Structures are given as structure tokens and as C-alpha cells.
Amino acid sequence: MTGSWATFGADLHLDLAAAAGGRGLRAALTEALREAARSGRLAPGTRLPSSRSFAADLGIARNTVAEAYAELVAEGWLTARQGSGTRVAERARVRRAAGASPVRRPARRGPAYSLLPGSPDLSGFPRTAWLAAARRALTGAPNDAFGYAADARGRAELREALAGYLARARGVYADPDRIVLCAGFAHALQLLGRVLRGRRVREVAVEGYSLDVHRDLLTGAGLVTRPLWVDEAGARTPDLAALGPRTGAVLLTPAHQFPTGAALTPARRAAAVDWARTTGGVILEDDYDGEFRYDRQPVGALQGLDPDRVVYLGTASKSLAPALRMGWMVVPPDLLEEVTAAKGPVDWTSSALDQLTLAEFITSGAYDRHVRGMRLRYRRRRDELLAAVAGRVPVSGIAAGLHAVLDLPAGTERSLVQAAAWQDLALEGLARFRHPESAMPVREALIVGYGTPPTSAWTPTLKALTAALP
After folding, report:
1. pTM of the complete model beyond 0.85
2. What is the mean pLDDT of each run of 10 residues along the chain (470 residues)?
3. CA angle, residues 230, 171, 235, in degrees to nearest 5
4. Read out DSSP for 235-251?
């Protein structure tokens, strides 16, 4: 006989037939419960169901359950107290399988401090405002929000909210019908890689300094990445014309080149658009931190120059948190059907309720308030970083974003990354982001992600950095 109950909140399966061994039902139940506690399937402190409900669930007499409980209490496997019910005793321990070695978990501990780029201050996530938006969104959600998503592009409410926000804040021409929601930038790039390959594109130009994760996603789609030189004016987009007809797309970070921090100049923006118009190529614009500009007016999206040749990509990963897995593409009309088909017949990737919450967060003005508050926080950190390293190393890429570039003398990058590790500080060098086929002169620098530390750790993290510098 087998039985299971749902009164724990999690089901537990008991094989009474195997436990019986020719004995009676009470003995079988006692042994099954004893084995569940001994093996750890019933964790210490777990509350068991009442004898009445357990007996009803198993289809046996209540006295049988009560007697089994009493025997296990006497043996010390269970405890029973008035008002607290019957529970697995705290001293119950997991029994190892015969001959098995103890499980040893590696004692791993990451660095105490981190200035790795690519993350916001997660302690700044607007929990209270987000919860309020979630409540409002849930209260007003239509019934169909709780079913399978019928539109692969995502919820119309969020697409409409994003269209208004992106037009206002980033200068993007964003018709809600041309917005496709996705589970972050990596998901978007996977979809676009599949579409480009289907269009017989064989090569994609990328910035000579860029994230290897993004290059790997394109390579995984069957595309070859061709590096463009990067200098103080951003990627050398005039060089696109020399790459030949096999290069059908280019991936750029125009507003704030990652990781060097340069803004793509107007002339180079125009060169990229001219290349796309002339060759029929596609520009993939990664606007990963466009909201965070400090020393001058925001640099608008490249997509505004030609919405028919640029795919605009944005996420909530830097402005809110990567864990939301929320991203979006504004897709040119002639690519929309292919991108939507690549995503699938329905929206499997992002929670409809999270989409509705973000839509409410944006339309209520909470998103703008949050971004303004975080912009002030990051600018203050940037200024403190500049003051701490003044006169020791040149700093660049600081007009925007969540990281700065600390230029170093030749031959010192690796040793300084190691020196930081001795200070229990995680740092990345510029070499980490160099395309393996790039012919650019080697530049040595530290990429300092000053947005990463939680507020409570910012001051000691900055001290660890200054201690590691020469």
C-alpha cells in the first residue's frame, strides 16, 4: 500500500507495502515514517498532519496512525506537544547510504569586495515602490493575463508604456507594435542571431573591445564576428565598408562604449547608418546604460537616425536589476515578422505579471523617480572614485554609466588585478574584453564597476581599490 498527503504544503510519498515486510499495517506505517525521518526526507522540525487527517488521507484507522506516532515519540524520532502538534525531532539525522562517503561541500568564498563592471547597486532596488506597482498591476490585470500569452511580442500594456518612455527619454521611434519583449539582452541577441543566419548573413562586425559573452552568442548562431577598432571616438564605423558583403550586421554600444566608455561621435554614427543603407545591413544598438549620463545632455539613441535599419535593444538590468530578466527590442518593420517567429508562437520567456508590473512602474512615474535617485547615487560614487585616485592614474569613460576606466602603464595590468585580489577585491582588466582577432594596439587599464557594490560596502571597497593601486 502506498500513500501521500498534501497537508504539509509539500507531498511525501510513503511506500507502506515495502515497509511492511509481512508485518501489520501499524508496523509498516511506523517503519515508513521512521525511515523518512532517518533518511532526511522528513526534515527535523517538520510538522506532521493530525492523526485524523493523516488516517483519512491514507484510508486507514485513526488509531493505527496514533499508535505509530506514539511509538516514534517514545523512540525519539518524533516530538508531540500540546498546541504544537507532532513534529520530527530535531536530533533526527540523515543516514548515509551504505559505503557512501560523506558529502563535502567546497568551502568557497568569493572576494569580500567587488568592482566588477556590469551590475547596478542591487541594494538600491526599489522594493517598496515595486511592490506597490505589483499590487496595482495585479488588481487591475485582465483575466487573460493569467493564461498562456497569445502575443509573442509580449503584453501590450508594457509595449505601450515602453514606447512612450523610450521616445521621451532616449529619442527612440518606438511604435508599440514594433516592440518585442524578451528575457534580457542575451535572449534578444540569440533571437537576432537566428534571424540573421536565416537571412544568409555570415559575419557580424563587433567592437574590438566588447563582451565575450555577446560574441559567443553570435558565434553560437553560426556567425563569425569581425572586430572593429575602438578609440576615443568609439568604434571606427567607417571601416565597415571595407569588411565586404559577407558582413551583414554590426553590434554597437553607441551611447557609452563598453568597456572603454567612449561615446560614438556624430560622424561615426552617420557612417554606420550610411553603411547600413548602402549595403542593406542591420545595426544592433545595445543601449545598456543610456539612462545614466552625468556631465552633459544625454546622448540619444542611434536608432533615431534610421528606425528602418537599426534594432534598438534595452533592458531593465542596469536601471533596476538583472534578476527581472526583462528586455526589449524595437524592430524595423521588415525584420518584425522574422523576429517574432524566432521567438515562438507565444511569449514563453517573461512573466506576464512582471510585464504588467513594469508597465505600471513606468506609467506611474516610479521608474523615472528611481532612475533619477540612482543617477545621483552613481554620480556621487564616481566623484568619490575620482577624488580617491586623483594624481595616481588617468581616468576616462566617466561621463556616463556605471564604470570607469583607469589607464595603466604598460605591463602592469595583470599585476594590479592580482594586487587587488590580495586586498580581497575583484577587478577586471581591459584585456578581458579584447577580441582575440583584434589588431588594435594593446591598451592596459582597469575597468572599475563603481555601480556594483551595495551601499553599505562602498566605502571599504573604495579603500581596497586605493590600497591596490601603486
Report:
1. no
2. 43 60 77 84 85 82 88 86 82 47 54 94 97 96 87 94 95 95 95 96 96 95 96 96 94 96 96 96 95 82 95 96 96 96 82 95 97 96 96 93 96 93 94 95 96 96 93
3. 5
4. E-GGGGGGS-TTEEEEE
